[in-house]
Description:
Elements: H1 5-20, E1 24-26, H2 28-45, E2 55-58, E3 61-64, H3 67-76, E4 80-87, E5 90-97, H4 108-121, H5 126-136, H6 138-142, H7 158-182
Antiparallel strand pairs: 1-5, 2-3, 4-5
Helix pairs in contact: 1-4, 2-4, 2-5
Amino acid sequence: MKISHxxxxxxxxxVELVRQAGGQFQNKTNLFKAFWKAHLAYAANNPGYLSTxxxxxxxxxPGIEDFDYLVSEMLADGWLTLDEAQxxxxxxxxxxxxxxxxxxxxxxAAIEAIREGVRAVDGKSATAVSDESHRxxxxxxxxxxxxxxxxxxxxxxxxxxxxxxxxxxxxxxAIGTSYATSRK
Length: 184
């Protein structure tokens, strides 16, 4: 588990997701997908990463690693409160800004990416956002549960990925041949 400035950054992103959703965010699955989508949106439109906090493969799509740890700290620090709501036949977690919630402190580009993450899940059920993530994330489909995802590979379309893999194979072959020849 990362105990660092990245822990604080991940918590600030989660708080900002709740803030950008109007102060309440319904459904843990949707929060996970908004976190994932915000990271993709940031990387697609800015140099660098929104954070380096791990996003891992979970059965219902990309998820926030060590989420229980992060949320327990945010609840204890008063950054968030947690309730439940009935959503159809299911009980859903409802995250709300807490009494000691820190003010916004992320750069505008990060906040815009977070807004995009919130918009991506707004008004959708957990099932719908999970199904979308399964279709949209090739990296998720190729990983095993619990593995960290290199989500940024999902920003490359299938044709570009195939081209890069072909180039990599050719390069690996050339290096292997050259290396084998030079050792004789």
